[in-house]
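Exercise 7 asks you to align residues with tokens for two separate proteins.
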Amino acid sequence: PQTVTYEHTDSGNFAGRVCSITALGEYNAVTGGDQILFDLALIIQFPPGSTILIPSAILRKGNMPISVGETHLSFTQYFAGGL
């Protein structure tokens, strides 16, 4: 499996809280899997086991693809908006 997300926000999340994104799998973090925070103009090397806390409802984000034969999964936790 190769989890790849393109530039997006999570509009269903509660804007006043952060979400947690954890990278899982086996991939070379030097060549792929980076987290991209578009609004902050940051590309963050994100090896397996890394976790980041971001306000996903208001911050545009995505991640870089990995190489063929590698695996990349994301475990995401968030506060749902509108509850």
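Second protein for Exercise 7:
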Amino acid sequence: MLNKSRRVVDVISESTQLLQEAGVDEAAESVFQLLADVLHLSWESGFRELRDAYYSTSRISTDTTANTPLYAKPIDGNAASLLDSAQKPPVSGKALMDRILTTGELDHWQKHLERRLKHEPLQYILGQWDFLDYTLNVRAPLLCPRPETEELVLLALQSVKEILSMRHSNDAETKVVVDGSTTVEPQLFTNKKVRILDVGCGTGCIGTALCAEIAKSFPQQQQQHHTSQPLVHVTALDVDPVAVSVATENAQRILGMANAEQQYQAILMAAEDFDPTAMLSSSSSLKMQAKAEAASQLNNRDELLFDLVVSNPPYILPSEMDTLDATVRNYENHVALSGLDPDGMCVIRQIVQALPKWCNANAICWMEVHPTHPVLLQQWLSSTAQHQPPLVPPPQGVKFVQTVKDFLGNDRFVQLRVIK
């Protein structure tokens, strides 16, 4: 597939050209990510080292032979001035570009490249990916973690903090200023943890990140008040055994084995089959037996219900599935992508209908949705839905709160509240 040259700089140039000809998006970045893995460079910075060394070498090289890198990215004026004055890249960068791949490394690279040429996601090839400040295991056919879902976690995180604050007595609150905004941070917590339900957990990125972020936000409180109880507990649902396995792995990887056992539980179950209150009185249902032992430690109905529901459900319109990039369309699980109904809201409606059954009074639900869904949801949950009755009646006791745009300006997130 590649010519006989094993120099890193040549491998980058030739592989980038092959990926571009195959129509692979972000061909050069793919090469840097995958080659950093083959060369056992740092996960955090290895691909940047390759990228910087490659473009710097290309910028100052006077070699016009075939070995010259083909796809040099422009650099800013200050960097160009420094390079012009030096007339050579840093020794470490040049040494990296001149490095010769071993036979084993070249074989490894050929396998990576062949998979990427077929548009397989980088996340599957590498087996892991970054999400917020965490590196998560990723396996096919699970959805690859995306930036929009990072935004969903941050929205849900703020709701968890507000719930913790409301459970704290007023005289123990401390006002702090963060980014110009005054917030209330609890200094003492009740024994009742915030219970979170993650519907359609996939890799577990949402629930695991929430647990980790809360621990970072309140590192001293539990120590100061001599409690080993976690502040949050996440129950994660998915219909894919791979998701349940990977989500559990990621909770253990990010939270540590002991904390994961206390804070995170992934269950193989569809949202429509999940009933937390059924675990209190009976475990006769085969679908609930896996959870019965944990439920026996809880004393009453309120401790089984949830304070926050968060979900990145299937929401792509069926009419849009064929328009998705091949990296998504040919590899990621269509069950986790497609909203099934023509409007893409089949699973979303199931979740919203179940909120009163799942949740405590005033519980919050955050969902990532299609840009067309916020208006449809608001209409469905309001009296206007009576004029055009939907196939599924709206639940009683669920209020539409707000729509939040994503970083691209799309109506991407909805907040609902359970009223009892």
